[in-house]
Design goal:
Distance between the termini: 79 Å
Largest sheet: 7 strands, mixed
Structural class: alpha/beta
CATH superfamily of the largest domain: Type I PLP-dependent aspartate aminotransferase-like (Major domain)
CATH topology of the largest domain: Aspartate Aminotransferase, domain 2
Number of strands: 13
């Protein structure tokens, strides 16, 4: 047996690379990254590819190793070329992601050291960093000292945890789920509907509250609906408001909603995944006034802080309510319970095993300071306003309401023919061209194009190019 173990050890030791091998791999990877970033300005924002990355299937998992140069070449041609390029400053569709370089360095360090941040006992310094990030975001929202939260993979999981915390805090039982009511608008992110299902509340009633002309929840209608539901014997459970809808960038009247939630003792959650970090700006503070009245909020650092994808956060005003909802003990973890100076992330979310996500947020905030982030967010607000004003110089353009944050929507109305058909062709032509990327949506059967400005690399020259491409494609299709 010993000989067999030794033989296996020789083979297994190949997994531990030497100093020379590590330096070589790192240099190749760094060179690849530098080539990608240095040529980013010349790269298209979107590549319409027939193969759609099928070339990766030419590399099956086999017993024999493959050369790193060859693997990088496949990544370049099959992964980093086709489809949408979220790193591009010319990507202004959906809600753009970030990709700060120091965050990549942080992920490298977190992966190499492989610190486990599920419980404070295992990596106290790493957990302190994550909790430091959460406290900073709670301060930004305006939550008190007892607030808590968790770094998640994104807004979807954050919204799910919030809904479960609200469900548990209400102390409703499974038999009451069909009598429970959740209030929102048609503009709520679809992940909230998924969260309702995942939280076991599929039988609950989802009351869609009417919106005003700016696609914001009508608070009078909300209060009337709550009163009517209580009269009918239903159980008002949660209000889901938005601080920057993904579709249109609308911000619900949070102050008034907070007052209504307080009067009726209903958990008030704000999905600020997209808009939350605009609180760093004076405009954002004004537009989102009242967010501090919420019981919980979702906010995504991979949006407003420009971090790589996989960086979300849930914030809860009363941290004990989150702990009571999520905490569970296990016999094999008994040694960890003696370290209680800081809250353990595993006690505040469904996750036990988790990546050291906090480092990718902590490092750039330390390296750059907060000021450049605030400046970038203010720039995005102004760029959106600039686009909104300039696009109206094109004859035939019809715009939506003034942008509240950094999303604007519009359409072109041709002299003849169906506008929906024209705008479908227009967005397809923009995608086929690829220099810039815009997305489309539909409101009550009407198709609109969307501009969403939130990439830290998007600047005035990129907005001017988007305007130029729009003029060119409209003229081409007319």
């Amino acid at each position: 047996m010993e000989q067999h173990i030794k033989k296996l050890e020789q083979q297994a030791r190949k997994l531990e690379t030497s100093t020379k091998e590590r330096k070589s791999l790192l240099k190749q990877a760094t060179d690849y990254g530098e080539d990608f970033l240095s040529s980013l300005a010349q790269k298209p924002a979107y590549v319409d590819s027939e193969s759609m990355g099928k070339g990766v299937y030419e590399l099956p998992f086999e017993e024999k190793p493959k050369d790193f140069d060859h693997l990088l070449a496949v990544l370049k041609s099959e992964v980093d070329k086709p489809g949408l390029n979220p790193a591009s400053g010319k990507h202004a569709g959906y809600i753009p992601g970030g990709g700060l370089y120091p965050s990549a360095i942080a992920d490298y360090l977190a992966a190499v050291t492989n610190r486990y941040t599920g419980v404070f006992f295992s990596s106290p310094g790493a957990v302190r960093i994550e909790n430091m990030c959460i406290r900073w975001m709670n301060d930004l929202i305006g939550y008190p000292k007892g607030a808590s939260g968790n770094l998640t993979s994104g807004g979807s999981i954050a919204n799910l945890i919030a809904l479960v915390a609200a469900r548990d805090d209400s102390d409703i039982k499974a038999k009451d789920f069909s009598q429970s009511v959740i209030y929102t608008t048609q503009q709520v992110h679809h992940c909230v509907v998924k969260a309702i299902k995942f939280a076991g509340l599929r039988e609950a009633t989802l009351q869609t509250i009417p919106m005003d002309s700016r696609f914001r929840m009508k608070t009078d209608a909300l209060e009337e609906q709550i009163k009517a539901d209580r009269k009918d014997g239903l159980i008002p459970l949660t209000i889901f408001a938005s601080a920057g809808t993904t579709d249109l960038g609308a911000v619900d009247p949070l102050n008034k909603i907070g007052d209504i939630a307080n009067r009726h003792n209903i958990w008030f959650h704000v999905d600020a995944a997209y808009g939350g970090f605009f609180l760093l700006t004076d405009h954002g503070k004004e537009v989102m006034s009242g967010i501090e009245k919420s019981d919980s909020a979702t906010i995504d650092p991979h949006k407003g802080l420009f971090l790589p994808y996989g960086s979300g956060a849930l914030l809860v005003k009363d941290g004990k309510k989150l702990y009571d909802s999520q905490h569970m003990s296990a016999n094999y973890l008994q040694d960890t319970y003696k370290a209680t100076q800081e809250a353990s992330p595993a006690d505040l979310s469904p996750e036990l095993s988790k990546h050291f996500r906090g480092l990718r947020m902590w490092l750039p905030l330390q390296l750059f300071g907060v000021q450049p982030f605030r400046a970038a967010l203010e720039e995005k607000l102004l760029l959106t306003r600039y686009f909104y004003d300039k696009i109206q110089d094109i004859d035939g353009i019809e715009v939506g309401p003034d942008p509240e944050l950094s999303v604007a929507f519009f359409r072109y109305v041709p002299d003849s023919g169906d506008p929906n058909t024209f705008n479908k062709k227009l967005v397809n032509e923009i995608h086929r061209d690829g220099r810039v990327f815009l997305s489309s949506t539909h409101l009550n059967g009407t198709i609109y194009l969307r501009l969403a400005v939130l990439n830290f690399r998007t600047h005035l020259e990129d907005i001017d190019l988007i305007l130029s491409v729009l003029r060119e494609k409209i003229n081409l299709l007319e």
